[in-house]
Design a protein that fits this description.
Layout lengths: L1 H24 L3 H8 L2 E8 L4 H16 L12 E8 L5 H12 L6 E4 L4 H14 L3 E5 L12 E5 L4 H14 L4 E6 L6 H13 L7 E7 L1 H18 L8 H24 L8 E5 L3 H11 L6 E4 L18 E5 L5 H22 L1 H5 L18 H9 L3 E4 L2 E5 L5 E3 L3 E9 L5 E10 L2 E4 L35 E6 L7 E4 L10 E4 L6 H12 L11 E5 L1 H13 L2 E6 L8 E2 L2 E2 L1 H8 L4 E2 L7 H4 L2 E3 L4 E13 L13 H24 L17 H13 L11 H29 L3 E3 L8 H4 L7 E2 L5 H9 L1 H7 L7 H9 L7 E5 H9 L6 E13 L2 E3 L4 H15 L1 H9 L13 H4 L7 H33 L12 H8 L16 E2 L12 E2 L6 H8 L3 H9 L20 H4 L2 H5 L3 H8 L10 H8 L4 H4 L15 H7 L6 H66 L1
Parallel strand pairs: 1-2, 1-3, 3-4, 4-5, 5-13, 6-7, 6-8, 8-9, 17-21, 17-24, 19-21, 28-29
Antiparallel strand pairs: 10-14, 11-12, 12-13, 14-15, 15-16, 18-20, 19-20, 22-23, 25-31, 26-27, 26-29, 26-30, 32-33
Helix pairs in contact: 3-11, 6-7, 9-10, 11-13, 18-19, 18-20, 19-20, 22-23
Keywords: Calcium, Cell membrane, Disulfide bond, Glycoprotein, Ion channel, Ion transport, Ligand-gated ion channel, Magnesium, Membrane, Postsynaptic cell membrane, Receptor, Signal, Synapse, Transmembrane, Transmembrane helix, Transport
Pfam families: Lig_chan, Lig_chan-Glu_bd
Protein name: Glutamate receptor
């Protein structure tokens, strides 16, 4: 039992330890993650040469690291962020400032560097040692430093010269050769391999030594042969390609004879000449081939090529049997090495964060001049470098491990060793005899050295970068000379910086010649950084679609290139017995390839090779728009004429329905609708509809019925949408209509039957001209007079004022770009495309590079790289859809608004005619209508006309109001505050009819009076009522009003127009005159005028006799109710007065009592004193 208990306790302790230990190792991991933002930063210092290539590889590696298929690269689901920077110059101060100000301040865990020379590598060594931050240098050329700086790790993307020397020594020792000689061909740049081979051979390998006895340098001999050949060519004034075959064969034989003599002299100076080995170095294929052909005449000597080489690059015929060569099995891209570097840092951070996440994740080195004291606080760089020094894993480049004694990250580099043998048919063939991996040579067990089976190599190999590429050698590691032609957006040019560099793009030359000697001298000066001897306008920076494609090809296929612009600026055509332009440079050997918008056609394909097309296009026709002058009615263009007609018809129909709804509604603004003060007529509806349509803010009558209001809101919504559409299209339409030439295509009559009126052309010696020449010779004969040297010049002829061309025919890819960047939006491609073609990379005929380049280009098209290039360089928004506005184009002048000025002048003239018509109407037609018994009711149409026909007041013949019949409207006889004069109910309706002009006799009698005067009432407001302050003063004053005062009161035009605030309240409140006067409401002029309220006081009721009693009863009941209300108020006031009086009496009584008490007290006090 005790044993089981002990085991249980042991298991529990182990479990608790497993659970508690991680917590102890991770103090506040959540707080640390929050502090760093769940991101690990890695710095990257880009090189000064080809930074875009390195940055692209860095981006690809970063994407691959984020999508790592295995376990997460970083712990706690942290993300990796790369902070990149680039030094302005290569001097130590600039590099140090760049690292400190752009990288270290961001709190990076490690820094990636890409040194391009031994000098830059030493700078990184010192910076890492000073900052104590891990640096990983990815070296593409040169040797690594043999140091033990744990803050600086070096990763080689190639096998250095020391490694190649070790491989050669392993092969020579394995073959049993103890010594040999070396033959140096010019342009090798490989003396480092020979020096390391000599040193390592003396030191020995596995107890075996190899001695370098003699060295033959052929540079001087080759230079003399080349000078003699050039002299012969100059004397004959022809190229060697034009010589007779027998002459060329004789020259080659002489060279081979002389080379054999030199090799024989070399072997005679070498001990054991028949059993010596010869290592041939050099990158000049002609020199190497000549040496190998001469070696066939010697004895049993082992010949070895000293540099990595592809055996397919050499012709097997004529080479010595047993020739050994070696090459790299697979050359991995730069992104693979960067990916392994990222994985190296990620694994180190993951391991370090298990023990001390605070040091592994939080960087305490963010200031180059404020480093933490390593004796007091351990820096993050110190802590992380411990884990970096012990990393080992399988990466993208094979097995990756950090060397234990020196700061080098070892990667896997594999090589094959081949031997030239004879197959069963006696034909020469290459066979694999050994493989070399990580310093170990492994023999092929299936064969016996050196007689092995035929083995074909499918992988590309690399050589050390040297001279220009020649036919027969692999392109990898060599330099190609590329010719181009400026065509936007495929190739752009701009001036280089003052120091002759290109921050973006590739450095290129504009030599304006195709002479190979001149080009060689120019590129030599440029390579030696002797650019001061070159003219300033010759050095340019080239960039664009094709330059990006060329950079991608160079990176993936491992070659370098020299770029220059074709001298004559032509694509190439057969002219004067030879080819010009790009084709001529390829045929003469001045260029190895041509990369631009190079169209593939049958004529060029007969003399040169093209890769598979990387861009498909066709021919198109470019025309320019014609700006037309804006006509007088341009302001109406935003809307069609049918829309204008519909708007105004809808406006009048809406006004008609508004009037009908208002007059048919019991709540409308009409004389029959709740006795409105104002009347809503058809003219009021038109005024309202026009005001809403044009958005003018003027006083207008609005409908009162709900139906009318709903219709008015619908009309407002309609006007809002119409006005918004008009405003939106106004600026775009009024800038002037653009009319383009109507060309349906290449078969249009304007092109097929040209006349002197229509001018069109294309570019000289282009594929477009070749197509027109073959397909339409008559058209070509006409248009060749208008052809232009380049595409930009052809487009410029369309944009001149006046234009020099009416149409321009060229590749659609080029024209579409010109249309997209046209700021004035005057260009457009019209018609159907024709002559479908493609752009390809031009190469010399039967070039061995054609197939390889075609396969790579097809791969780019399948993986989407070409689509990315298209989006990059054709992302300019088409002119018709661009989001920005060109202010100069959208400026509108007076010519655009001339119609509005004319419309305003017409409106002024029409208003004068309208004024004349009004005077004519009121002077001639209105008196005639007064005599008529019909057409007297115009309220539904116009209130002004109705007033003029139905309202007349004669100042001199106004009837006198009988003031003796006026009775006071006071509530009591003694009231002096509310005394108003009132009309006697006994007044006959004839008086009212006189004011309403209801009696034809009264109307005719007054019209006959010569001194009559028409009166116009203001029915829209209550300002027309004169203030009745005189009536409010008392009954006596009100009774003394004469008939002139009465007319002055009722007719506002004859008196003042100020309405007192007291009478306004009296007319608007329920306690107004109508409540105080015992007469029913009446109408004045049958229009519900504001003066009708006052007419209740002065005029008798206008109702029929049958309804007077009921109206008076209602008024009587209302007055009695008010009297009861007044009585209640009076009772409350009397009660309050009684209460106040009682309180006042009590207060007075208390005061009197107090006075009596005080007097009694004083008397008693006096009496006490006397006693």
């Amino acid at each position: 039992m005790s044993v089981m208990l002990c085991r249980l306790v042991a298991y529990l302790s182990v479990s608790l330890h497993a659970l508690i230990s991680p917590c102890q190792l991770h103090p506040q991991p959540c707080g640390i993650l929050a502090q760093i933002g769940h991101t690990i930063r890695l710095g990257a210092v880009l090189p000064s040469h080809q930074p875009s290539r390195v940055r692209a590889a860095l981006n690809r590696a970063l994407v691959h690291a984020r999508n790592w298929p295995h376990a997460p690269l970083l712990p706690y689901n942290l993300s990796l962020e790369v902070v990149w920077a680039r030094a302005a110059h290569a001097d130590p101060e600039s590099v140090f400032r760049c690292v400190c100000q752009d990288v270290v301040v961001r709190g990076v865990s490690a820094v990636l560097a890409f040194p391009q020379s031994q000098h830059e590598l030493v700078q990184v060594e010192f910076i890492s040692a000073f900052l104590e931050i891990p640096f990983i240098s990815i070296i593409e050329e040169g040797e690594a430093l043999q140091t033990q700086n744990r803050f600086h790790l070096q990763m080689l993307t190639h096998v250095p010269a020391s490694g190649l020397a070790e491989l050669l020594l392993s092969v020579l020792v394995r073959a049993g050769w103890q010594g040999g000689a070396a033959v140096m061909c010019p342009g090798g740049g490989d003396t480092g391999v020979l020096e390391h081979l000599h040193q390592q051979g003396r030191a020995g390998l596995n107890g075996s030594r190899w001695h370098l006895w003699e060295t033959l340098d052929l540079s001087s001999h080759w230079a003399s042969w080349s000078s003699e050949e050039e002299a012969n060519n100059n004397n004959n004034n022809q190229f060697i390609l034009h010589k007779k075959p027998e002459d060329v064969s004789q020259e080659v034989t002489d060279k081979e004879q002389e080379m054999s003599e030199l090799l024989s002299q070399l072997m005679n100076r070498t001990p054991s000449a028949l059993h010596s080995s010869v290592v041939v170095f050099g990158s000049d294929p002609e020199c190497v081939s000549l040496v190998l052909r001469g070696a066939t005449r010697l004895g049993h000597t082992l010949w070895v090529l000293g540099l990595p080489l592809n055996p397919d690059a050499l012709s097997a015929l004529g080479s010595p049997k047993g020739l050994l060569a070696y090459g790299q099995t697979e050359r991995r891209p730069l992104s693979s090495y960067i990916g392994d570097a990222l994985q190296l840092v990620g694994r180190a951070v993951s391991d370090a964060s298990v023990v001390r996440p605070d040091l592994a994740l939080i960087q305490n080195m963010v200031n180059c001049f404020d480093k933490p004291n390593k004796h007091e606080l351990l820096s993050s760089g110190h802590y992380l470098s411990r884990f970096l020094s012990n990393m080992s894993f399988e990466g993208l480049t094979g097995h990756v491990t950090v060397h234990p004694s020196i700061s080098i990250v070892s990667t896997t580099h594999g090589f094959h060793v081949w031997s030239l043998q004879r197959d069963a048919l006696g034909q020469p063939s290459w066979a694999t005899v050994a493989e070399w991996h990580s310093g170990h040579l492994e023999m092929d067990k299936k064969s016996i050295w050196p007689d092995l089976m035929k083995h074909e190599l499918d992988q590309e190999t690399t050589v050390k970068p040297g001279r220009r590429w020649h036919h027969g050698f692999p392109v990898s590691g060599h330099r190609l000379r590329v010719v181009t032609l400026v065509e936007h957006p495929f190739v752009f040019t701009r001036k280089a910086d003052e120091d002759g560099r290109c921050p973006a793009g590739q450095l290129c030359l504009d030599p304006r010649t195709n002479n190979s000697d001149i080009l060689n001298r120019l590129f030599t000066d440029l390579e030696q950084k002797n650019s001061s001897s070159l003219p300033g306008d010759m050095i340019k920076c080239c960039y664009g679609y094709c330059v990006d494609l060329l950079e991608k090809l160079a990176e993936d296929m491992g070659f370098d290139f020299e770029l220059y612009i074709v001298g004559d600026g032509k694509y190439g055509a057969w002219k004067n017995g030879q080819w010009t332009g790009l084709v001529g440079d390829l045929l003469s050997g001045a260029a190895d390839m041509a990369v631009t918008s190079f169209s593939i056609n049958s004529a060029r394909s007969k003399v040169m090779d093209f890769t598979s097309p990387f861009f498909s296009t066709s021919l198109a026709i470019l025309v320019r728009s014609k700006d037309t002058a804006a006509p007088i009615g341009a302001f109406m263009w935003p809307l069609h004429w049918s829309m204008w007609v519909g708007i105004f018809i809808t406006l009048h129909i809406t006004a008609l329905f508004l009037t009908l709804y208002e007059w048919k509604s019991p709540f409308g603004m009409t004389p029959h609708g709740r006795n409105r003060v104002r009347v809503f007529s058809y003219s009021s509806a038109l005024n309202l509809c026009y005001a809403v349509l044009f958005g003018r803010t003027v006083a207008s009558k609005t409908p009162k019925c709900w139906t009318g209001r709903f219709l008015m809101n619908l009309w407002a919504i309609f006007c809002l949408l119409v006005l918004s559409s008009y405003t939106a299209n106004l600026a775009a339409v009024m800038v002037g209509e653009k009319i383009f030439e109507e060309v349906s295509g290449i078969h249009d009559a304007k092109l097929q039957h040209p006349s002197l009126g229509f001018r069109f052309g294309t570019v000289h010696e282009s594929s477009a001209e070749d197509y027109m020449k073959k397909s339409f010779p008559e058209v070509h004969e006409y248009m060749r007079h208008f052809n232009q040297p380049t595409t930009p010049q052809g487009v410029a002829t369309l944009k001149t004022d006046p234009p020099q061309l009416d149409a321009f025919i060229m590749d659609k890819a080029l024209l579409d770009y010109e249309v997209s960047i046209d700021a004035e939006c005057k260009l457009l491609t019209v018609g159907k495309p024709f002559a479908i073609e493609g752009y390809g990379i031009g190469l010399p005929q039967h070039s061995p590079l054609t197939r390889n380049f075609s396969e790579v280009v097809n791969g780019y098209k399948s993986d989407g790289f070409m689509d990315l290039l298209h989006d990059k360089w054709y992302r300019a928004t088409p002119c018709g859809k661009r989001s920005f506005a060109v202010t100069e184009t959208l400026q509108m002048g007076i010519q655009h608004f001339s119609g509005l000025f004319v419309l305003l002048c017409v409106g002024v003239v029409c208003s004068l005619l309208t004024l004349l018509s009004e005077h004519t109407f009121y002077s001639f037609i209105l008196p005639h209508l007064h005599n008529q018994h019909r057409l007297k009711y115009w309220l539904h149409t116009s209130q002004k006309i109705h007033r003029a026909l139905n309202t007349v007041c004669d100042e001199k013949k106004t009837e006198t109001v009988n003031k003796n019949t006026n009775i006071p409207l006071c509530l009591s006889e003694g009231c002096q505050l509310h005394c108003l004069p009132s009309a006697d109910p006994s007044i006959s309706s004839s008086t009212y009819n006189r004011w309403n002009d209801g009696s034809p006799e009264a109307t005719s009698s007054e019209l006959k009076d010569a001194n009559h005067k028409r009166v116009h009432f203001d029915l829209g407001s209550e300002r027309g009522i004169k203030s009745p302050d005189a009536f409010m003063e008392g009954p006596d004053v009100g009774i003394k009003r004469s008939d002139e005062a009465m007319c002055d009161l009722l007719v506002p035009d004859l008196g003042t127009r100020r309405l007192d605030g007291g009478i306004k309240k009296l007319l608007r409140s329920q306690r107004g005159i109508r409540g105080l006067v015992g007469s029913p409401p009446s109408q004045l002029c049958a229009n519900g005028d504001a003066a009708s309220g006052l007419s209740l006081v002065l005029l008798p009721p206008a109702c029929p006799a049958s309804s007077r009693s009921s109206l008076w009863e209602g008024e009587l009941q209302e007055i009695e109710g008010k009297i009861e209300e007044f009585r209640g108020n009076l009772r409350a006031a009397l009660a309050r007065r009684a209460e106040l009086q009682r309180n006042l009496e009590k207060e007075r009584e208390r005061q009197r009592q107090t006075e009596r008490d005080s007097s009694c007290l004083s008397i008693s006090t006096d009496m006490n004193r006397r006693r």
